[in-house]
Amino acid sequence: MGASDSKLVFKKGIFRLSEERNIRADDPYWTSFWELPESPEDVFSLFSPADIRRTRDSALENLETLLLAVTSRLFSLRHHPSFPEQDIAPERDLLNCVRVLTRVLPYIYERESLQAWEERFFWSVRRKRSRSAASAGEVLFDEADTADQNGDDGSDRAAPQDGFEEAKPLAEELIDTLIDLLFFSGFTVARQPPGKPRVSYTIWQSGVGCNTTVPTTKESESNRCELLRLLLTLSSSSLYRPAGALPAHGVRSLTYICTCPDKQVVLSVLCSLLNTTVKYNPASWRVPYNNLVFKDPKQILVTYSLHFLLVVLLYPIPPDPVTGSISKNYYRHFLGRLHRPTDFQFIVDGMTRILNQPLQATTSYIPGTQSSVKFAPEIIMLFWEITQCNKRFRSFIIDTQRAHDFVILILFYALECKNDSTRQGVVRMCAFLLQTMSVEKNFGINLNKMFDTQDTLPPAIRIQNFRGTYADFLIQSIYSLITASQSRLTAIYPALLAVINNIAAYVEGLSARTSSRLIQLFSSMSSPSFLLANDSNHNLLCSLLEALNATIEHQYSIGPENPQLVYTIVRNRKRFESLRNLTLDNGREEIERRMQRRKDSGATGDEPAELGSRRSSVDSLRSPTTSHHHGQQHARPSQALSDVAEDDAFAIGGDDDEDESDDDEPRPTPSQSSPCENPSRASPAMSVEDAVPTQVRGMSEKARGKMPAGAGPFSFSRQNSTTSLGSGSAHGGSSDNNLAGSGRLDGLGGGGSGTGGLGGSGHGFEPTVQWFESWLPELPLHTILAVMQQISALIPRDELAVDYPSPDTLQRIQDVHLAGIEPSTIRVHSFEWSALALGWYESMLWSFIFSSEMQVAKGTVVGVWNSTAIKLFRVQEAAAQGPSLTSPRGAVDAVGSNIVSRIGQINLRGNNAAGVALGSAAGGGAAGGSANHDAGNATRNPPATNNPAPPSS
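The line above is the sequence of High-temperature-induced dauer-formation protein; the predicted structure tokens follow.
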């Protein structure tokens, strides 16, 4: 449809859709929807949001017939023996059917009142005309068993009962057809020889499950993009629900996709998406210019492949509403069954190549090349998913010491995003990814390797004059995340401290600077203004003290010691003694004195070692709801699933029975709480935006060894995780309705900022003597006080007055035999997923997808979810932008836009003066804008009409 008069014909037909009621199913009019458009831009520009909403709201029966017509045409083309023959069964028709469905479905999902109609129309068993009864030129018509909600009994469209057969629900057949088309000969994969099946589940790229090079064409890749975009659209009803409702409510389309029992289908889709993603090379010679000047079709395919892969991997299948049973997510299951080292190496190399792009491009002379790949956060999410559900992959990463590379990469993205309020979700994800790896013993041991290439890192992550090990670099970077985040990252302080706790027993020879950073954290966390700010901050202090104890105790008996840390502790012994002697009264007096000094000096900022003042925000209401080990958030039991038998196809999974027992064991009863655990009030203001995976208190190796194989949160299992480490820590045993959170580290040591009373959080908490005495005597100070007493007697006072001790002093510390210091039981701190945390995680993924779709559609009118009423996150409008190097506007662009604009604004409806603004948010929906969410920030031009903003989650 290259000429403007053809566009005009199509536009008139779209108006007819809403102005004429009950258009017959056999009317030739319907063929215009797949015969006239020539590109996605035609469908998205001429079929405007206003047109779709008007048809939906005033002529739902026509919208229903349109959906039936295009799906029937889609099904008939898929089964046509000559498809994709241009003259007989053209692929253009099929692609236009896909585009129309992609365009229309979001506007059905956004209308909550259509949920019952959607359930009936898409998911009820149908009566379908058999192919033998349908003539070649007819529109096949599928009819649901029940009448629609508007009272239309389908009599105008009904065909004779003869020649009809019962068929699966429309949505199921549509999904099955789209999956088949992803592997269709001559359409998305290479043409098969005569006599071969036209649907050949051939993996798209070499890599996992395929060792041979697979030929492809640009046309095939473009067709894959269109199909994946529709599959994402079918899965996107989550965008129109609040985040808290996602895990329980579920998405019917995703449930059907993820529970597909056909192993060949699942593995072909899984391996195709995975290989396409990790084989992408952003460092090719084209990419720097490509990022600046034109779109890379390969990157678009990779983006859609990665997003659909993550959607199916992350999806927690809800319980069956009738039986209450939970089906297995086979995509997540088979990802967890990967076991070949060559596959792991392929995945690791690919993800490293993508994530490493901004680190390698710092010396490039090409402007813009140092920027991260657009989907780098999604690659981090994929890495986290694999480390959670595949214990073999986790071991491979750590045992081959590739964990060093990923630690640096994860810290780079965390530190790069820490000050960007729109990317806080990336930082949270990085923190929990570090915690996921840190539960492995070898992870902590391998961190003792010297980090000699720190000077080659980008400035955002480089530590000035750094000399030390990977453990030093990790701890100092965690310190930077805590102290430089301006209280935006309080939700992950327990996770960051858990990382230090998990490696504490294994790190050796900590540097002077690292030791100083740990003591600075202790100084801030032990200040009265922090401890009395709410009823849970003492848990964070307890967690840090436990880490210091483990570092001292376990490294005095094996290998090199940590004399610098011991020296720093002894040098700051007054801080520890002050904590030991702290009372509620003198704590309040100290806060008053500090506030008075600030007032007298006119100071407005915190002292250098302090972590910022307490802010009044919803985050500051976060507090634990149940007892946990040393400040860790409470656990929620997640439901694991049984494995299924499998053969050796694709060499995925080893012994069929290897993990059979992992998912059927009952959850263990929590063991006795440690002294540092104290019940806290539930937070009434908790929101999904603040939700993160919940911390589980540490459990000893001995206790872990007595647990059933695979039990406990070491599986990092959400619902349907099917692989785990061989042992795990106990659950916190808390209700699913409670979401734990740590007390904020706002005002850490800062004397408060005047919010609330003395030691109060400003939200009603008032410390009492009973509360104070419930935790202060139980702080684990014995080891540190014993070390201070014995070491201070051996070192002259003048030697403790210098920042850096002499080698002789350090040697004396190493040689001393400490009496009464025995290694405590090593406890590993893990986390589990709650319903709210899953809602946060899924909403972050969908904000990535929403933002990326706007990038893909930049400069065009194509944008699947633009101008729809998003409820999952808040969408903000962005200022209009003129021509730029990334979005040039030449004469051809101007002419094309002018033609489309004129046609779109034609008024063909008599007295109705409202024009149709092509590509704008005409009609009652929310305008597309930036996804203002933890996950990311994307922008588009503001709409041409004034539309209500979407509701915030």
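Note on the example: The chain has a mean pLDDT of 76. The CA atoms of residues 876 and 930 lie 5 Å apart.
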